[in-house]
C-alpha cells in the first residue's frame, strides 16, 4: 500500500488534505496526518481503498465555526445549484448542508460546492427536495468531519475529532451526516477515534455493510452517539464508548440487522443507553454497560407488525441506574416485539425511582428471561405470563451470522 506522510504545512488545511487523498487515485493508499491541530472548513471525503491515519490523541481535527446562508427563495428538487441572499466566505470545494425548518432527514441535502456565480452556488449533485420560501430554507456550513460516499475498503484510525458545537449555529441531520459518516459504502473500519461535541450524531452510517468500529469514543454530541441505519447490515462495534450524548448512546435505526455490539459502554446519555426499533432484527449485544442514562438502559421501541423488532439477544450486560427521567424499567420491551433473549445480565435500578427491572408490554411475546440478576427494582419484572417464552427462542444473531442474502437489499 502506498503511504503518504503529510508535513505540518501540507496538512494545514482541509483542502490540502483532500488534495493528498485525491492524488492517491483509484489504487488508494494511506494518508498519515502529523501531530497538531487542524481546523476543517470542509469535510474530508475518503475515496475507495483509502486509509486516513493520525498520531492518536496528538492529531486533532476541529470543525471550523459555522455560518448560515438563507436561500433567496423557492428552489426545486434535483437542481445542482441554490440561490442565496449572499455568499461571503463560501468557496468551491467546501461541504455544506441545505435544509429548511421541517427537519426531514433524507430530504436534507449534503453536497460539495462546485462553483459560485454572484449569489448562486453550484453543487456536486442535485438537491434532495423542494425548498419552499415560507419554510425558511438555508445553506449551512455544517458537514461530517470525515465521510465516505459510495466508497469501498476505507479506514479511519488514531485521531481525535472536535465538533466545536459551541461555534455552530446549526447542524446536519442524522440521515445525511454525523461527525464520522458513511453512506452506500462497504468494508469500513474506524478504530481508536475519540470524538466529541458535534452538532448532530457522533458516528452514523446508512445503507452500508461490513463495518467494524473498534475502541472508539463518541461523546457530548447533539444527537445519538452511534447510529447504524437504513438497512445497514453486518457491523461490529467492539470496546466502544458513547456518553453524554443528547439522544441515545446507541440507536439502531430502520432495518439495522446482523450487528454485534460487544464490550461497549453507554453512559449518561439523555435518552436510552441502547435503542432498538423498526425492523432492527438479528442483533447481538453482549458484555456491555448501560448505566445512568435518563431513559431506559435498553429500549425496544414500540413498533408494530410487520416491522416489529425480533431476534435480539442481550447477554452478560450490566444495566444499572437508568430510566432516571423516562421509561418504565431498566429494560423496556414495547410494541409487537418477539423472540427477545435477555440472559445472564445484571439489572439494577434505584428503588426510590420506582422503576421495574424489566417491562414487557402486553403486545409483546416470546420474551425469554433467564439467569438475570435483578436488584433494587420494583417490581423485578412486569409482564403478562403470555408474553414470556416457555422455551428459549432459536435464531442466529450478530455480524457473524450475516450472509450475502442479508444485504442484497443494499445498493452497493
Task: Note down, in words, how this protein is organized.
- This protein has 412 residues and is an all-beta fold.
- It has a domain at 68-140.
- The protein contains 1 helix and 38 strands.
- The strands form 4 sheets. It has a 21-stranded parallel sheet that branches. Strands 7-12-9-10-11-8 form a 6-stranded antiparallel sheet, with no helix packed on it.
Highlighted features:
1 helix, 412 residues, mainly beta, six-stranded antiparallel β-sheet
What's a concise summary of this model?
With 412 residues, this protein is mainly beta. 2% of the residues lie in helices and 41% in strands.
Mean pLDDT: 95
Percentage of residues in strands: 35-45%
Uncertain regions spanning at least 5 consecutive residues: none
Record field, number of beta strands = 38
N-to-C span: 24 Å
**Approximate helicity band:** under 10%
Shape descriptor reads globular
Question: How is the secondary structure organized here?
Answer:
Layout: E1 3-5, H1 14-23, E2 29-32, E3 36-40, E4 44-45, E5 50-53, E6 59-63, E7 68-70, E8 81-83, E9 95-99, E10 109-117, E11 120-123, E12 138-140, E13 146-149, E14 152-162, E15 180-183, E16 186-196, E17 203-206, E18 209-214, E19 217-219, E20 226-229, E21 233-238, E22 241-243, E23 250-251, E24 257-262, E25 265-267, E26 274-276, E27 283-286, E28 289-291, E29 298-300, E30 310-315, E31 318-320, E32 329-333, E33 338-343, E34 346-348, E35 356-360, E36 365-370, E37 373-375, E38 381-382
Parallel strand pairs: 1-2, 2-5, 3-6, 4-13, 5-14, 6-14, 13-15, 14-16, 15-17, 16-18, 16-19, 17-20, 18-21, 19-22, 21-24, 22-25, 23-26, 24-27, 25-28, 26-29, 27-30, 28-31, 29-32, 30-33, 31-34, 32-35, 33-36, 34-37, 35-38
Antiparallel strand pairs: 7-12, 8-11, 9-10, 9-12, 10-11
Amino acid at each position: 500500500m502506498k503511504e503518504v506522510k503529510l508535513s505540518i504545512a501540507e496538512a494545514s488545511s482541509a483542502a490540502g488534505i483532500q488534495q493528498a487523498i485525491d492524488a492517491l487515485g483509484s489504487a488508494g493508499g494511506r494518508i498519515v496526518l502529523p501531530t497538531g491541530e487542524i481546523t476543517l472548513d470542509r469535510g474530508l471525503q475518503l475515496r475507495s481503498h483509502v486509509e486516513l491515519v493520525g498520531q492518536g490523541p496528538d492529531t486533532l481535527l476541529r470543525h471550523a465555526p459555522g455560518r448560515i446562508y438563507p436561500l433567496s427563495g423557492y428552489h426545486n428538487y434535483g437542481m445542482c445549484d441554490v440561490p442565496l441572499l449572499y455568499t461571503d466566505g463560501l468557496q468551491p470545494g467546501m461541504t455544506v448542508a441545505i435544509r429548511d425548518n421541517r427537519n426531514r432527514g433524507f430530504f436534507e441535502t449534503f453536497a460539495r460546492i462546485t462553483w459560485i456565480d454572484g449569489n448562486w452556488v453550484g453543487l456536486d449533485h442535485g438537491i434532495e427536495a423542494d425548498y419552499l420560501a415560507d419554510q425558511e430554507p438555508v445553506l449551512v456550513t455544517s458537514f461530517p468531519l470525515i465521510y465516505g460516499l459510495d466508497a469501498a475498503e476505507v479506514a479511519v484510525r488514531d485521531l481525535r475529532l472536535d465538533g466545536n458545537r459551541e461555534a455552530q449555529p446549526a447542524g446536519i441531520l442524522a440521515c445525511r451526516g454525523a461527525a464520522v459518516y458513511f453512506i452506500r459504502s462497504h468494508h469500513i473500519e474506524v478504530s481508536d477515534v475519540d470524538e466529541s461535541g458535534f452538532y448532530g450524531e457522533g458516528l452514523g452510517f446508512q445503507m452500508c455493510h461490513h463495518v467494524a468500529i473498534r475502541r472508539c469514543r463518541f461523546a457530548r454530541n447533539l444527537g445519538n452517539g452511534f447510529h447504524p441505519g437504513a438497512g445497514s447490515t453486518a457491523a461490529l462495534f467492539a470496546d466502544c464508548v458513547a456518553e453524554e450524548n443528547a439522544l441515545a448512546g446507541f440507536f439502531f435505526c430502520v432495518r439495522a440487522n446482523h450487528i454485534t455490539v460487544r464490550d461497549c459502554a453507554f453512559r449518561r446519555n439523555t435518552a436510552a443507553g441502547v435503542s432498538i426499533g423498526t425492523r432492527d432484527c438479528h442483533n447481538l449485544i453482549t458484555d456491555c454497560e448501560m448505566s445512568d442514562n435518563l431513559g431506559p438502559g435498553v429500549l425496544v421501541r414500540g413498533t408494530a407488525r410487520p416491522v416489529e423488532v425480533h431476534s435480539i439477544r442481550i447477554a452478560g450486560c450490566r444495566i444499572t441506574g437508568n430510566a432516571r427521567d423516562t421509561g418504565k424499567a431498566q429494560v423496556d420491551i414495547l410494541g409487537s416485539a418477539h423472540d427477545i433473549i435477555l440472559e445472564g445480565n445484571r439489572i439494577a435500578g434505584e428503588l426510590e425511582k420506582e422503576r421495574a427491572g424489566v417491562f414487557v408490554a402486553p403486545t409483546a411475546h416470546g420474551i425469554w428471561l433467564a439467569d438475570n440478576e435483578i436488584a433494587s427494582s420494583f417490581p423485578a419484572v412486569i409482564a403478562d405470563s403470555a408474553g414470556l417464552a416457555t422455551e428459549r427462542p432459536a435464531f442466529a444473531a450478530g455480524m457473524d451470522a450475516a450472509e450475502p442474502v442479508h444485504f442484497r437489499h443494499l445498493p452497493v
